[in-house]
Amino acid sequence: MRPTVRFLSNQLLEDIVGEARSLLEKLGIEIHNPGILDMLGDHGAKIDRDKKRAFPGGEIIDKALEAAPSGFRLYDVEGGETHDLSGHNVHFTPGSAAINVLDYETGGSRRPTTEDYVRYVKVVSRLPHLSSQSTALVPADVHQNISDSYRLFLSLMYCSKPVVTGAFTIDAFNIMKDLQIAVRGSEEALKAKPLTVFSCCPTAPLKWSDVTSQNVVDCAKYSIPVEYISMPLSGFVAPITLVGSLVQHTAETLSGIVISQLTNPGTPVLYGGSPAPFDVRYETTPMGAVETMMIDCAYNEIGKHLGLPTQAYIALSDAKLLDAQAGVESSMGATLAALAGINNVSGPGMLDFESCLSIEKLVLDNEICGMVLRMIEGIEPREDFPAQPRFEELLADHHLLISKHTRRYLRDEHYIPGPVVDRANHSRWLEEGGRTLGERAHAEVERLLGEHEPTALPGDVRKDLTERMSVEARRHGMTSLPHENL
């Protein structure tokens, strides 16, 4: 039996969805993109052009939900399937777009470079419990106008796993789309085997900017999967109550589904988000707060009720260092996410309100992910009945260390972590150096970097990707790309 967790009764869930639909029909959604307003109007939505608001009614929402697929699959650079984003399948990916990296040598955070990004990607490629990579760091050594496409470029060059990414400009989307087509070979091949998921974020409350709404449309045109990242902040730009924040989250996410499905029915989507309570003491948005985790799990229930696969920014921490707080918040989030059946869990590796990535934390979080993935497999009999033969063997030999039954099921039944997690007794721990968690994690990072192998990306594709990226860099005054010097 698979263990689960729920936060909403059936009636409360229905009430939240009903209120969200009513908000869209009566208050509408603000959209700063004339073309999308025209499209919604063509499909029967009431439009107030002076206020840039659309009012999608129930029929339009129902049409969009009916068109949206109940799941989809992701594929790696070589075309191998990595994800089945449907049902209660759970996959983990690092968090996204940190502007700082935690420097192991100094213990402080700093702006990341291309070298940091490449180290991160190489490590991710070796972590078995992270099904995908993300554009997790923003390198500060390239022009800001190419930072989105450059991160995707580096990810495709150094790691085979699919990428959770996003574009902050319309121009960035175009080159990022072209990079994916270069890997797959054609638009049709990319549609058949999606390589990325793009994060698209409405603005609280009830608003889409020109760029983000256009990203939704552009992704839909090429059947590139989208995860909607609604970010209600409870008590600031959303109601203080969790229910009120869920109503807002539902309305904003439904509006995104309408835009994508009216553009191209059947576009793969993830019902996602990054909500948080607003901590008035510090004016912060704690991603490690229990209320954040509760809202995440609850809107996951709403997404599944609507027949959609889900995503959440969870399993991360607001701590500034790899410390006890980082472990508590990340492990609690990962556990709840897995029990809730969130399909794509974004967060491992992240600190400081998702503004800082720690590669050492990433390898620790990989172990946390391994533990919770084992947990949701549940408890099932493995040749345990009848029990008498096993206990006869135990009474005769006084142990079952080398029993056939033990050897057959040891690795299936027990999750055995790597060296980051210390399970030695105290004397052996001292004999092996008495290393701290941070020291063990850093040693594991160095080991994984030493074991990195180039991807199977063909040489002509690598050349094509590099040429495309170099052209884009020259458009913004850069004569070379930093990765060429690594």
Secondary structure elements and their pairing?
Elements: H1 10-26, E1 29-31, H2 34-42, E2 46-48, E3 53-55, H3 58-67, E4 72-75, E5 81-85, E6 91-93, E7 100-102, E8 109-110, H4 114-124, E9 133-134, H5 147-158, E10 163-165, H6 170-184, H7 187-192, E11 196-200, E12 207-208, H8 210-221, E13 226-228, E14 233-234, H9 242-263, E15 269-270, E16 276-277, H10 290-305, E17 311-313, H11 324-340, E18 344-346, E19 350-351, E20 356-357, H12 359-375, H13 388-397, H14 404-413, H15 426-431, H16 437-451, H17 459-475
The average pLDDT is 97
CATH fold annotation of the domain at 67-375: TIM Barrel
- Could you tell me the number of beta strands? 20
CATH architecture assignment of the domain at 67-375: Alpha-Beta Barrel
What structural class should be given to the helix and strand makeup? alpha/beta
Going by CATH, what is the homologous superfamily of the domain at 67-375? Trimethylamine methyltransferase-like
Radius of gyration: 23 Å
Indicate the CATH class of the domain at 67-375: Alpha Beta
- State the helical fraction: 40-55%
Low-confidence stretches: none
Describe the structure in your own words.
The structure is a single chain. This protein is an alpha/beta fold. The chain has a domain at 67-375: Trimethylamine methyltransferase-like (TIM Barrel, Alpha-Beta Barrel), CATH 3.20.20.480. Helices cover 46% and strands 12% of the residues. The chain has 17 helices and 20 strands. It has helices spanning 10-26, 34-42, 58-67, 114-124, 147-158, 170-184, 187-192, 210-221, 242-263, 290-305, 324-340, 359-375, 388-397, 404-413, 426-431, 437-451, 459-475; strands at 29-31, 46-48, 53-55, 72-75, 81-85, 91-93, 100-102, 109-110, 133-134, 163-165, 196-200, 207-208, 226-228, 233-234, 269-270, 276-277, 311-313, 344-346, 350-351, 356-357. The protein has a five-stranded parallel sheet, with helices on one face. The protein has a four-stranded mixed sheet with strand order 2-3-1-12. The chain has a four-stranded mixed sheet with strand order 8-7-20-19. Helix 5 (147-158) runs antiparallel to helix 17. The chain is globular. It starts with 9 loop residues before the first helix and ends in an 11-residue tail after the last helix.
